[in-house]
Amino acid sequence: MEPSATTGGSETTRLVSPRDRGGAGGGLRLKSLFTESSEALPEEPKPVEMSFHHCHRDPQPQLGLTPERLQAQRQLCAACAVCCIFMAGEVVGGYLAHSLAIMTDAAHLLADVGSMMGSLFSLWLSTRPATRTMTFGWHRSETLGALASVVSLWMVTGILLYLAFIRLLHSDYHIEGGAMLLTASIAVCANLLMAFVLHQAGPPHSHGSRGAEYAPLEEGPGETLPLGNTSVRAAFVHVLGDLLQSLGVLAASVLIYFKPQYKAADPISTFLFSICALGSTAPTLRDVLRVLMEGTPRSVGFEPVRDALLSVPGVRATHELHLWSLTLTYHVASAHLAIDSTADPEAVLAEATSRLHSRFGFSCCTLQVEQYQPEMAQCLRCREPPQA
């Protein structure tokens, strides 16, 4: 029996018979007997955070609401509380004054309450992690909440426009000028307070995907595009529309208080300022539809992104370039990069991803690196899309 060998705390005993040593009856045969180790088997290595990351902006995804969305949640909660209090006051004041314009303003506040609560729900829903079914997570629920807010305001405004038209046709109504004036004054103060709460000044200028403003680095210090939270922006636009209407109602109430014979100013102000409220939602609706239709982000151009990728050393051509957004601040990009045979694919991937993150603020980039082939110049799928 040969001596035993000990390695790393586990003892191994090996027995070799004479036949095993090379007898004429057969080849070499080894038989090993292992004794149990005196130490427990080592546990499987646990995943540790790497000191580098190959293609992700952040080493780990951020859990819960981002600071921007936490601020949006606080703004919406405060504005919703103010809105509920003053909406109840306008309902009572409008009923006592028999004013359709006051009731119109109260109905707009009701629509704002519903939209803000929907936005708060969408903010909570967007914190849910990604799944195999919802691979991007629930970020787009914020955009859907903004769309629901705009649609609800349009529906309520349409009903009130119809009632104002009926009042213009029939003059069998009476308005209490004093109650209307008092309620309209309070409504103006309420809308000013909500506009102050929902106003998004935004943090200092940043080129990152989490910043509230963005301007491409290669364009120099130009005009920034305020983005902010979609839900808060939609609510702020609603409040601005309500503020304009409240000022119109206040002007009409002053006229009716001193000249009761001009009571037609009540439905006329409802008619005019409801149209203004509808127009004020057009920019928000345009941005929401752009996101839902997978359009290129408004703050990012197709040509600058393409040129930035082509400027990466080793990249000969790029195709299948797609740019879209999940929200106004969560931008996504994907592309195929055709590189030289001598280029290092890992270096090209790292450099291209870094440029997309730092210059354009993309939150998610998916790049495919492949060898350049001359046939790509004639490939229909490799051609750039035409201008819109």
TrEMBL record:
Family: Belongs to the cation diffusion facilitator (CDF) transporter (TC 2.A.4) family. SLC30A subfamily.
Principal localisation: membrane
NCBIfam families according to UniProt: CDF
Protein's recorded name: Probable proton-coupled zinc antiporter SLC30A3
Single Gene Ontology MF annotation: zinc ion transmembrane transporter activity
Keyword Metal-binding: yes
Catalytic activity, reaction form: Zn(2+)(in) + 2 H(+)(out) = Zn(2+)(out) + 2 H(+)(in)
Cation efflux protein transmembrane domain boundaries: 78-293
Physiological role: Probable proton-coupled zinc ion antiporter mediating the import of zinc from cytoplasm into synaptic vesicles and participating to cellular zinc ion homeostasis in the brain.
Polar residues bias (residue ranges): 1-15
UniProt entry keywords in alphabetical sequence: Antiport, Cytoplasmic vesicle, Endosome, Ion transport, Lysosome, Membrane, Metal-binding, Synapse, Synaptosome, Transmembrane, Transmembrane helix, Transport, Zinc, Zinc transport
Subcellular location field: Cytoplasmic vesicle, Secretory vesicle, Synaptic vesicle membrane; Late endosome membrane; Lysosome membrane; Synapse, Synaptosome
GO biological process, one term: zinc ion import into synaptic vesicle
Gene3D superfamilies reported for this sequence: Cation efflux protein transmembrane domain (1.20.1510.10)
Domain Cation efflux protein cytoplasmic: 300-372
